[in-house]
Write a structure and sequence with these properties.
Blueprint (H helix, E strand, L loop, with lengths): L1 H4 L1 H16 L3 H38 L4 H34 L14 E2 L4 E2 L1
Antiparallel strand pairs: 1-2
Helix pairs in contact: 3-4
Amino acid sequence: MKHYLFLMPALILIATLPTVVFAQSLQLFVIDFMVFINIVLLPFLIGIAFLIFVINVVRYFILESNNPEGREKAKNVAYYSIIAFVFIIIFWGIVNILAGSLGLGGGPPPCPDYLWDDFTGICG
Protein backbone atom coordinates (compact mmCIF):
# COMPACT_ATOMS: atom_id res chain seq x y z
CA MET A 1 0.00 0.00 0.00
CA LYS A 2 2.80 2.41 0.83
CA HIS A 3 4.47 2.08 -2.55
CA TYR A 4 1.28 3.35 -4.24
CA LEU A 5 1.64 6.66 -2.42
CA PHE A 6 4.92 7.25 -4.23
CA LEU A 7 3.18 6.79 -7.59
CA MET A 8 0.82 9.77 -7.12
CA PRO A 9 3.49 12.50 -7.60
CA ALA A 10 4.82 10.59 -10.60
CA LEU A 11 1.35 10.43 -12.15
CA ILE A 12 0.82 14.13 -11.54
CA LEU A 13 4.20 14.89 -13.12
CA ILE A 14 3.41 12.73 -16.15
CA ALA A 15 -0.01 14.35 -16.53
CA THR A 16 1.43 17.86 -16.34
CA LEU A 17 4.61 17.16 -18.34
CA PRO A 18 3.26 18.62 -21.62
CA THR A 19 2.25 21.72 -19.70
CA VAL A 20 5.72 22.03 -18.18
CA VAL A 21 7.44 21.58 -21.52
CA PHE A 22 5.23 24.06 -23.40
CA ALA A 23 4.68 26.54 -20.57
CA GLN A 24 5.64 30.02 -21.60
CA SER A 25 5.87 31.34 -18.09
CA LEU A 26 5.52 30.32 -14.49
CA GLN A 27 2.08 31.93 -14.35
CA LEU A 28 0.80 29.76 -17.21
CA PHE A 29 2.21 26.67 -15.52
CA VAL A 30 0.47 27.54 -12.24
CA ILE A 31 -2.78 28.19 -14.11
CA ASP A 32 -2.56 24.87 -15.94
CA PHE A 33 -1.66 23.00 -12.75
CA MET A 34 -4.62 24.50 -10.89
CA VAL A 35 -6.92 23.68 -13.79
CA PHE A 36 -5.61 20.09 -13.70
CA ILE A 37 -6.30 19.87 -9.96
CA ASN A 38 -9.70 21.52 -10.28
CA ILE A 39 -11.00 19.65 -13.32
CA VAL A 40 -9.26 16.25 -13.25
CA LEU A 41 -7.75 15.34 -9.89
CA LEU A 42 -10.37 16.45 -7.39
CA PRO A 43 -13.40 15.01 -9.23
CA PHE A 44 -11.47 11.75 -9.60
CA LEU A 45 -10.76 11.65 -5.87
CA ILE A 46 -14.39 12.45 -5.06
CA GLY A 47 -15.46 9.58 -7.34
CA ILE A 48 -13.09 7.17 -5.60
CA ALA A 49 -14.33 8.28 -2.15
CA PHE A 50 -17.95 7.85 -3.28
CA LEU A 51 -17.21 4.40 -4.68
CA ILE A 52 -15.57 3.33 -1.41
CA PHE A 53 -18.54 4.72 0.53
CA VAL A 54 -21.08 2.82 -1.59
CA ILE A 55 -19.10 -0.42 -1.38
CA ASN A 56 -18.95 -0.20 2.40
CA VAL A 57 -22.63 0.66 2.72
CA VAL A 58 -23.39 -2.50 0.72
CA ARG A 59 -20.99 -4.44 2.94
CA TYR A 60 -22.60 -3.05 6.09
CA PHE A 61 -26.24 -3.69 5.16
CA ILE A 62 -26.05 -6.74 2.86
CA LEU A 63 -22.82 -8.71 2.87
CA GLU A 64 -21.80 -8.45 6.54
CA SER A 65 -25.28 -8.11 8.06
CA ASN A 66 -24.80 -11.16 10.33
CA ASN A 67 -21.18 -10.55 11.31
CA PRO A 68 -20.68 -7.82 13.97
CA GLU A 69 -16.94 -7.51 13.21
CA GLY A 70 -17.56 -7.07 9.50
CA ARG A 71 -20.28 -4.50 10.15
CA GLU A 72 -17.93 -2.53 12.41
CA LYS A 73 -15.14 -2.55 9.80
CA ALA A 74 -17.55 -1.48 7.04
CA LYS A 75 -18.94 1.29 9.26
CA ASN A 76 -15.47 2.61 10.06
CA VAL A 77 -14.39 2.67 6.42
CA ALA A 78 -17.66 4.40 5.47
CA TYR A 79 -16.91 7.04 8.14
CA TYR A 80 -13.43 7.50 6.70
CA SER A 81 -14.83 7.96 3.21
CA ILE A 82 -17.22 10.64 4.50
CA ILE A 83 -14.26 12.36 6.16
CA ALA A 84 -12.41 12.10 2.81
CA PHE A 85 -15.39 13.81 1.11
CA VAL A 86 -15.16 16.68 3.57
CA PHE A 87 -11.39 17.12 3.18
CA ILE A 88 -11.56 16.91 -0.63
CA ILE A 89 -14.31 19.52 -0.78
CA ILE A 90 -12.35 21.77 1.60
CA PHE A 91 -9.24 21.36 -0.58
CA TRP A 92 -11.32 22.11 -3.67
CA GLY A 93 -12.55 25.31 -2.03
CA ILE A 94 -9.00 26.31 -1.09
CA VAL A 95 -7.83 25.76 -4.68
CA ASN A 96 -10.72 27.88 -6.01
CA ILE A 97 -10.11 30.65 -3.45
CA LEU A 98 -6.41 30.65 -4.29
CA ALA A 99 -7.07 30.70 -8.03
CA GLY A 100 -9.59 33.51 -7.69
CA SER A 101 -7.47 35.65 -5.40
CA LEU A 102 -4.36 35.33 -7.57
CA GLY A 103 -6.24 36.10 -10.76
CA LEU A 104 -5.77 32.59 -12.10
CA GLY A 105 -9.46 31.78 -12.35
CA GLY A 106 -9.69 31.99 -16.12
CA GLY A 107 -10.49 35.68 -16.36
CA PRO A 108 -8.30 38.27 -18.00
CA PRO A 109 -4.82 38.49 -16.54
CA PRO A 110 -4.11 41.36 -14.16
CA CYS A 111 -2.63 44.47 -15.71
CA PRO A 112 0.98 45.23 -14.70
CA ASP A 113 1.56 48.60 -13.04
CA TYR A 114 3.86 49.82 -15.79
CA LEU A 115 1.10 49.35 -18.40
CA TRP A 116 -1.76 50.90 -16.41
CA ASP A 117 -2.76 54.40 -17.45
CA ASP A 118 -4.24 56.31 -14.50
CA PHE A 119 -5.73 58.99 -16.72
CA THR A 120 -7.77 56.74 -19.01
CA GLY A 121 -8.08 53.71 -16.73
CA ILE A 122 -7.04 51.42 -19.55
CA CYS A 123 -4.37 48.75 -19.51
CA GLY A 124 -1.94 49.13 -22.35
